Amino acid sequence: MKVLLINGSPHREGNTYLALKEVADTLENEGIEARIEWIGTKAVQGCVACYKCYELGRCVFHDELYERLLPLVQECDGIIVGSPTYYAGPNGSLCAILDRLFYSGGKYLKYKPGAAVAVARRGGASSTFERLNKYFTILSMPQVPSQYWNIVYGREPGDALKDGEGMQTMRTLGQNMAWLLRKIHASEPLHPEAEAPVRTNFIR
Fold first, then answer.
1. Burial of 126 (C-beta count, 10 Å sphere; 0-12/13-18/19+)
2. Could you identify which of 37, 90, 128, 163 might form a hypothetical disulfide with 85, taking C-beta atoms 3.0 to 4.6 angstroms apart as the criterion?
């Protein structure tokens, strides 16, 4: 089984990475393959609501980040998304790629367990955490809990390691993800049969 962890920070090995690495190390100790992918620092193309993904089965844009992440989304059994906190929300570049991945690749993510991790200097982490969780709840993805909200505190590089409770929360998250994946893969059927979606617009 494989879990994809997306590092949504512009700092490759900053505090968001350290939080995700604690989860990844725990998953590996539990016998689950874990892979951390960094979104980088280049400008990220956002969704333009062209709906070409309905026709193509993938996003119409062929940028390197999307091309790299889509196959990993297809093959993973669970996903964890981590972000620093900017103005009480996730990194905008991260949201830009997640909008496209979850909209065009939703069929690959449905019913897979997901979790969000928020990192902050002080405030706004709860809003970041909540915003990221919305990607999972719209696709029938079970949300993996921990012993506390999945938040780690730190500003300077390495500060996250000093947040004892935050690091423990990450380890518990990894343990719970591994536990849930084992339960899911031991069950038949893997998920309930879903009704065809009903789309109701407020204005016609």
1. middle
2. 128
H-assigned helices in 138-192: 164-185
CA atoms within 13 A on the CB side of 19: 35
The percentage of the chain sitting over the pLDDT mark of 90, rounded to a whole number, equals: 91
- Quote the pTM value: 0.95
Domain made up of 2-185: CATH architecture:
3-Layer(aba) Sandwich (3.40)
DSSP states of 120-143 as a string?
ESSS-HHHHHHHHHHHHHTTTPPB
Cα separation, 93 vs 117, whole angstroms: 16
Domain assignments of the chain as residue spans, ordered by start: 2-185
What is d(CA 73, CA 47) in angstroms, rounded to the nearest whole number? Answer: 18
Q: What is the pLDDT of residue 116?
A: 98
Helix (H, G, I), strand (E, B) or coil at 151: strand
**141 pLDDT more than 90:** yes
Q: Which helix (H) or strand (E) holds 81?
A: strand 78-84
Cβ-based burial of 106 (10 A; exposed 0-12, middle 13-18, buried ≥19): middle
- Tens of pLDDT, residue by residue over 173-200, are 999 999 999 999 997 777 778 788 888 7
Taking alpha carbons only, the member of 58, 173, 193, 181 closest to residue 112 is 181
* CA gap 102, 70 in Å, rounded: 10
Helix (H, G, I), strand (E, B) or coil at 116: strand
